[in-house]
């Protein structure tokens, strides 16, 4: 039987450091999930997209002389909502723009399921929980 001299069983310092780094990263992710960090980030992203869509709506409204980016081009009656058409285009400074991708970089996941609304006061709203976004 041949044995190696000078080397005993066990882990090297580098192996232990890597294992501790992995464990630390996993603990950090769990802590962030428990404290709600990721849901706050989703909520912030949803609010930012809502504000961007609201800005795009305002520009569309001005450029189209009072036409809304909805299927019929009108705002809904009081108490009702209309779906936003993310493909609606308008001209700004000689350039044709659409809600996506010119105003928001990523098309909302649920854009075509009726969760992005506009009301009779021309206010954009989102009918979904931030964690679904």
Describe the overall structure.
The chain has 3 helices and 5 strands. With 133 residues, it is α+β, with helices and mostly antiparallel strands. It has a domain at 41-132. Strands 1-4-5 form a 3-stranded antiparallel β-sheet, covered by helices on one side. A two-stranded antiparallel sheet has the order 2-3. The longest helix is centred in the middle third of the chain and has 27 residues, at 37-63. The N and C termini lie far apart (63 Å). The model has no long low-confidence stretch (mean pLDDT 82).
In short:
The protein has 133 residues and is of the alpha+beta class.
List the keywords.
alpha+beta; three-stranded antiparallel sheet; two-stranded antiparallel ribbon; 133 residues; 3 helices
Strand content: 5-15%
Count of separate DSSP helical elements: 3
Counted beta strands: 5
Radius of gyration: 26 Å
Distance between the termini: 63 Å
Side-by-side strand order of the widest sheet: 1-4-5
What profile does the largest beta sheet have?
3 strands, antiparallel
Please state the structural category: alpha+beta
What is the averaged pLDDT score?
82
Low-confidence stretches: none
Element pattern in H and E: HHEEEHEE
Helix content: 40-55%
What shape does the CA trace take?
elongated
How are the SSEs ordered, and which strands pair?
Layout: H1 13-35, H2 37-63, E1 82-83, E2 89-92, E3 95-98, H3 99-103, E4 116-118, E5 124-126
Antiparallel strand pairs: 1-4, 2-3, 4-5
């Amino acid at each position: 039987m041949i044995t190696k001299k000078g080397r005993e069983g066990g882990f090297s310092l580098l192996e232990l450091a890597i294992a501790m780094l992995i464990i630390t990263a996993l603990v950090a992710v769990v802590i962030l999930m428990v404290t709600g960090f990721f849901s706050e980030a989703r909520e912030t992203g949803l609010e930012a997209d809502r504000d961007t869509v609201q800005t795009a709506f305002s520009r569309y409204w001005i450029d189209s002389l009072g036409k809304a980016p909805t299927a019929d081009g009108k705002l809904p009656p009081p108490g009702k909502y209309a779906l936003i058409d993310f493909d609606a285009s308008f001209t700004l400074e000689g350039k044709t723009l659409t809600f996506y991708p010119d105003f928001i970089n990523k098309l909302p996941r649920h854009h075509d399921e009726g969760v992005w609304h506009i009301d009779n006061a021309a206010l954009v709203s989102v009918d979904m929980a931030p964690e679904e976004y």
